[in-house]
């Protein structure tokens, strides 16, 4: 992934020649990195078709402060917004069939891991608290979800549809993370969920949970 830097400080010093000047330039990061090592379900099997970062800032100012208007992108609870055509390619991973090979079963748990990590660079929400709901969220799109008996997990009308897991809120041990700091890497060792966490739409207010 690319990293992004801002000029933290530029100071012109004394001239060292007729047309030559010496300056001091300090580069400082303006993004944080979010990494995911594993997606795990305890009582269902599934194929992982998409990982999306949602509710993220689309730009930052040169001093690292988040602009106040028109830059928080949220794709809401619309399933069609979480497909291959997702407008920010750097903030998603997508496969129409399967995003990684699953291991296990619905009795002992199903795990999907990347070769290394899934990683995403996000503009750090400097001094924005999680309580303001302006931290990024993670949306997982699941296909072929089956229960422990091997039956399809359908919608209320019995239709086979893609399912979603939405993660909001992040913890460092037992301490909630209230901001993503520029230059820091935030690693989620495992996103673990069960059948009760699955929804038919992403970003349903009373069904999102923290990690």
Describe the structure.
- With 211 residues, the chain is mainly β.
- The protein has one domain.
- The protein is built from no helices and 17 strands.
- It has strands at 5-15, 21-29, 31-36, 39-41, 45-54, 56-57, 72-73, 92-94, 102-105, 109-112, 118-123, 137-146, 163-167, 171-172, 175-176, 185-188, 191-193.
- The protein has a 4-stranded mixed beta sheet, with no helix packed on it. A 4-stranded antiparallel beta sheet has the order 8-5-12-13, with no helix packed on it. It has a 3-stranded mixed beta sheet with strand order 11-3-16, with no helix packed on it.
- A hairpin with a 3-residue loop joins strand 9 and strand 10 (109-112).
- The chain is elongated.
- The two termini are 23 Å apart.
- Residues 5-10 and 207-211 have low confidence and may be disordered.
């Amino acid at each position: 992934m690319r990293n992004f830097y801002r000029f933290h400080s530029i100071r012109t010093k004394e001239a060292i020649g007729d047309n030559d000047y010496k300056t001091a330039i300090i580069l400082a990061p303006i993004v944080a990195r979010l990494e995911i090592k594993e997606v795990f379900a305890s009582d269902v099997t599934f194929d992982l078709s998409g990982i999306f970062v949602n509710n993220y800032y689309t730009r930052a100012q040169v001093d690292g402060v988040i602009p106040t208007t028109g830059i928080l992108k949220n794709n809401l609870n619309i399933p069609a917004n979480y497909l291959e055509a997702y407008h920010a390619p750097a903030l998603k991973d997508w496969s129409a069939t399967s995003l990684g090979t699953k291991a296990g079963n619905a009795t002992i748990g199903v795990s999907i891991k990347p070769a290394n990590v899934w990683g995403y660079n996000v503009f750090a929400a400097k001094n924005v608290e999680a309580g303001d709901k302006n931290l990024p969220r993670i949306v997982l799109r699941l296909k072929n979800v089956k229960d422990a008996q091997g039956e399809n997990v359908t919608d209320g009308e019995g239709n086979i549809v893609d399912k979603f897991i939405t993660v909001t809120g992040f913890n460092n041990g037992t301490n909630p993370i209230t901001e993503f700091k520029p230059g820091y890497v935030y690693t989620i060792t495992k996103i673990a969920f069960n059948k009760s966490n699955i929804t038919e739409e992403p970003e349903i207010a009373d069904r999102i949970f923290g990690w």
